[in-house]
Amino acid sequence: REEVVTIPVVVHVVHHTPEQDLGQDQIDSQLKVLNEDFRRANPDIAKVPDVWRDLAADALLEFRLADTDPDGNPTSGVVRRQTDTESFSTDDGVKIGSRGGSDAWPADQYLNVWVCELRHALGYAAFPGGPAELDGVVISHSAFGTMGTVAEPFHGGRTATHEIGHWLNLRHIWGDDGDGCSGTDFVDDTPNQAGFNRGTPSFPKLSCANGPHGDMFMNYMDYVADAAMFMFTKGQAERMDAALAGPRSSFLS
Ligand code: ARG
Ligand code: ZN
Ligand code: CA
Question: What's the complex ipTM?
Answer without folding.
Answer: 0.93
